[in-house]
Amino acid sequence: MELLVASSIGLLTAGGVYLILRLRTFPVIVGLSLLSYAVNLFIFASGRLAIGLPPIWSKTAEGYSDPLVQALVLTAIVISFGMTAVIVMLGLGAYLEAGDDRIDMEPSSPADDSGEDRA
Amino acid sequence: MSHWIIAPVVFPAVLGALAVLVARFDIVLQRVIGLAGVLALAALAILLLRAATLTGPEAYFLGDWPAPFGIVLVLDRLSALMLLLTAALALPVLLYVVGTGWDRRGQHFHALFLFQMMGLNGAFLTGDAFNLFVFFEVLLIASYGLMIHGGGRDRLKAGVQYVAFNLVGSTLFLFALATIYSVTGTLNLADLAQKVAILPEGDAALIRVGAVMLLLVFAIKGALVPVQFWLPGTYANAPGPVAALFAVMTKVGAYAVLRVYTLVFPPQTPATGSMFADLILPAGLVTLCLGAIGVLGARSLGRTVAFAAIASMGTLFTAVSVFSPAGTAAALYYLLHSTFATAAMFLVTDLVLARRGTGSLAEARPPIAQSGLIASLFFVCAVAMAGMPPLSGFLGKLLILDATRAAMGLVWPVILGTSMLMVVGFAQAGSLLFWKATALSSDTQRSEARPNALPFVVIGLLLSLLIGLTLFAGPVTGWLAKTAAELYTPAPYIAANALPVGG
User: Fold this and answer.
1) Angstrom distance (rounded) from CA B472 to CA B24
2) Does residue B380 form part of some domain?
3) Is residue A29 part of a domain?
4) How many CB pairs under 8 A join A and B?
5) pLDDT tens-digit profile of A27-76?
6) How many angstroms separate the first and last alpha carbons of chain A?
7) Which residues, other chains included, contact B389 with Cβ-Cβ below 8 Å and sequence gap of 6+?
8) Residue A85 lies in a domain
9) Is A57 inside a domain boundary?
10) A90 touches chain B (CB under 8 A)
11) CB burial of residue B401 (10 Å; 0-12, 13-18, 19+)
12) Which of B63, B198, B281, B475: disulfide with B321, CB 3.0–4.6 Å?
């Protein structure tokens, strides 16, 4: 089971890192979600892997799994979910405003230079 | 146990919600709520600073759950200082926003501002590494909203980059925390300090991985090379007053480094040793050089100031990397100075942009309204940013030079040389903005109405804070020296957490 969990974390991270290096907003957002899945699994594994053990008190339990990491994962899931929603909205806003979903800043023409120039 | 410790977190959260729900369509009421909130935060910060000075570190147990199981907030001199710094910066910035009407250009500015305060205060107060992550997220999500306030194509594009970059940072933060948790079984900072000090040798490699990942996260926040590249685009495209508030956001990174790497991983830890000082020192020096070259080479005013902010972070981290009480005291003094100086500079930049229409330094434009007054403010801010006498930047750099005597041959030429570069860079930008403009045409822009005085007063207020720091440098550095000493004798901080014996 260690091999399965470790390789799935590794695969998710590799896919996520590849995708966040893409030039378009959409793959970057998907990559960020993959990274957040990887880190959620990683946090889960950091409390040691245990099968069939309850996290809180039970009369018949032989041992316990770590309840704290489950709380941490829950927090991390909520936060990454919210953040993904934020970046999706922002990406949509930028797409509608600029007409393309490239993530880099192209140098703007001097005519419509309202604020700063771009290097 | 004083319940006031949690007030800087809860109070802006309640007011922020109020500003969204009650004052949604009433800008005047929003302004009242925002300003009252920031004023109250300043009062609270002074109260807490006094308490921390008199009684030493004090912990607040949320829901009265004992540490390390419950969540703790810990108030000590350093966190009280950062609370006061945040409030002292937020008040002028918010006044500037009201004075220039930036808050009318989009929705919910004051609510986001208050949530930003909540995140910052929480990050400074928390005594738990996972809560540090949570408060980082709170301050980041508010900063996303503030950064794109007012909208516009370039600002939104820069906003997407900023958010994406910080989400990667957050993921890395979680990886680091999980690694540390898997080794030590705790994330309470005081508990970590005790457990890391007596870690078995076999776990040393894993804790080093976690600690270096954590350092990388704080480096992203503090714009340290090689992860500084998000800063110029973000700061140059953010609304001026928001960029001024962000001057304290980079300091969160510096604060976190000081907190974690003096409490949990001090240089005498057998598992890690002095590896963090060895990593931060070169990174700080390269950051400083890159920032100074950027000031010289940037082609717009916003980016010039953003690179100056990077240079100031380089100087700050160079002082931090000494990890001695003298170095940390110098770093804290420079931290106070550079926050106010950077903020004032961004506000001046905003004044110029509002009148000139563009920050481009490619060509001279006709003179702007109130050119003389803005030019003098720009000059004073440039003197402060470059660290020239007579302002506090000079004293800060002097203290840092004094604290880095051990590495004199390496650090001194870099700090002095980059100061020179920044002087040239700012002189170049200033002469193009204000002097070449008058050569172009002699009559200045006609402004029909008398200009609003509040923005100028606010910048004056920030500069007078700098002058205050210079005049009262003796008492301030005395107090900061005690703060730094407290960081290097963490026993009272750990004792305040009342950890179970042998746990």
Assistant:
1) 42
2) yes
3) yes
4) 137
5) 999 999 999 999 999 998 998 888 888 888 888 888 888 888 989 999 99
6) 49
7) none
8) yes
9) no
10) yes
11) middle
12) B281
Assigned token pair, B240: 């001026």
Q: How many CB atoms lie within 10 A of CB B459?
A: 26
Instruction: Establish if B290 belongs to a structural domain.
Output: yes
DSSP state of B58: E
Residues 6+ apart with CB under 8 A from B252: B120, B123, B124, B136, B139, B221, B222
Which one of B141, B303, B357 has the shortest CB-CB distance to A86?
B141
Whether the CB of A73 is below 8 Å from some CB of chain B: the reply is no
* Euclidean distance between CA atoms B189 and B59, whole angstroms: 12
Q: Give start and end residues of each alpha helix (H) in B298-407.
A: 301-320, 325-356, 371-386, 392-403
d(CA B316, CA B336): 10
Nearest CA in chain A to B70: A68
Which phi and psi angles does B60 have, rounded to 5°?
-120, 120
Tokens of A97: 């405003």
State residue B150's pLDDT score: 87
Residue with tokens 């030493």: B56
A112 part of a folded domain: no
| Inter-chain residue contact B163 with A42, CB threshold 8 Å | no
Contacting residues for B309 by C-beta, under 8 A, at least 6 apart: B223, B231, B235, B247, B250, B291, B338, B342
* Residues B365-415 pLDDT 10s: 888 888 889 999 999 999 999 998 889 999 999 999 999 998 888 999 999
**What domain range includes position A44?**
2-49+63-102
- Selecting from A38, A47, A105 the residue whose C-beta is nearest the C-beta of B157 gives A105
Domain total in chain A:
1
Residues in chain B: 503
By the 10 Å C-beta count (0-12 exposed, 13-18 middle, 19+ buried), B485 is classed as middle
How crowded is residue B428: how many other Cβ atoms within 10 Å of its Cβ?
16
Q: How many domains does chain B divide into?
A: 1
In a domain, B468, yes or no: yes
Q: What is the CATH number of the domain that holds A21?
A: 1.10.287
- The amino acid at residue B101 is G
Residue with structure tokens 């501002």?
B113
Structural domain span for residue B308: 282-489
